[in-house]
Specification:
By secondary structure, the protein is an all-alpha fold. Helices cover 93% and strands 0% of the residues.
Length: 61
């Protein structure tokens, strides 16, 4: 659980770094990397939400 949260934090840090890289150099490759990092962060967030929902369902039973 903590590992997923740390991966989400790492994804946010990488997203900021890639957007800063684009702001400095105006190279479109930075936006490609930022898009991949964003999609990975959203996927990790959805995984964390799914774990929380499953945990609530198991506790309710």
């Amino acid at each position: 659980m903590l590992a997923i949260r740390l991966l989400i934090l790492l994804a946010l840090i990488l997203l900021v770094i890639t957007l800063l890289g684009y702001a400095i150099s105006r190279d479109r490759r930075w936006l490609t990397y930022a898009g991949l990092v964003f999609k990975g962060g959203v996927a990790l967030t959805m995984l964390l939400m799914l774990v929380f929902v499953i945990q609530r369902l198991v506790m309710a039973v």
